[in-house]
């Protein structure tokens, strides 16, 4: 299957059917994985990887349905997980214990990219985390994109508001460092993805 098909909204359905079919085939054929030389650690690793891939596919599909919501990243991921019925622990995240550290981890940036967030969207979510962490004055209520409003116009308005709030509390340089770090992980492509 091509990478573009793996990243499509239908990928979650395809992967879910494959996992279910695999379980049904094992039961039907009565194949004992131990008998064919698969260790229990290997089976557990495969099961964990499949659950993570399925979780990411479901989150990506839900993210495509919801679109951008101006929330701090951890809150956004939590809401996505609830809406998609995905325990974020299955994809290696423990939202309650993740550090609110400056910067972005490689793992987190890759997850944003896997979920289909553009650089700008990921930066806004991370910037809202930063604003919360440094005590920036409450940002104007960022309403969800209105019908007829171009996505880029909405993101630009959110970016401007966030940059102003962070500059007012002296965190503009930290935000710029965060942006540079995120862009380096994304490959700093000019199309914003």
Estimated structural class: mainly alpha
Residue-averaged pLDDT: 78
Low-confidence stretches: 143-147
Instruction: Please give the share of residues in helix.
Output: 55-70%
Helix count, DSSP H or I runs of 4 or more residues: 8
CA-atom Rg in angstroms: 20 Å
- Biggest β-sheet description: none
Beginning-to-end CA distance, first to last residue: 22 Å
> What is the overall silhouette?
elongated
Strand content range: under 5%
Describe this structure in words.
With 193 residues, this protein is an all-alpha fold. The protein folds into 2 domains: 1-66, no CATH class; 68-193, no CATH class. Helix content is 62%, strand content 0%. α3 (40-66) packs across α4 (73-84) and α6 packs parallel to α7 (151-168). The two termini are 22 Å apart.
Concise summary:
The chain has eight helices and no strands. The chain is mainly α and 193 residues long.
What is the element layout, followed by pairings?
Layout: H1 3-6, H2 11-29, H3 40-66, H4 73-84, H5 106-114, H6 119-134, H7 151-168, H8 172-186
Helix pairs in contact: 2-3, 3-4, 6-7, 6-8
Keyword list:
8 helices, 193 residues, mainly alpha, single chain, 62% helix, 2 domains
């Amino acid at each position: 299957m091509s990478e573009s098909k793996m990243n499509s909204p239908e990928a979650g359905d395809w992967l879910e059917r494959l996992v279910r079919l695999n379980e049904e085939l094992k039961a039907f054929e009565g194949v004992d994985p131990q008998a064919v030389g698969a260790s229990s650690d290997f089976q557990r690793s495969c099961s964990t990887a499949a659950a993570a891939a399925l979780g990411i596919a479901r989150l990506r599909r839900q993210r495509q349905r919801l679109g951008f919501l101006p929330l701090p990243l951890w809150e956004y991921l939590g809401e996505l997980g609830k809406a998609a019925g995905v325990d974020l622990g299955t994809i290696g995240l423990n939202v309650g214990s993740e550090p609110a550290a400056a910067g972005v981890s490689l793992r987190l940036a890759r997850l944003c990219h896997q979920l289909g967030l553009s650089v700008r969207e990921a930066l806004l979510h991370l910037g809202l985390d930063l604003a919360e962490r440094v005590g920036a004055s409450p940002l104007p209520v960022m309403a969800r994109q209105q019908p007829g409003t171009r996505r880029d116009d909405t993101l630009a308005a959110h970016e401007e508001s966030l940059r102003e709030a962070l500059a007012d509390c002296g965190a503009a340089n930290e935000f710029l460092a965060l942006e540079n770090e995120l862009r380096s992980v994304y490959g700093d492509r000019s199309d914003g993805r």
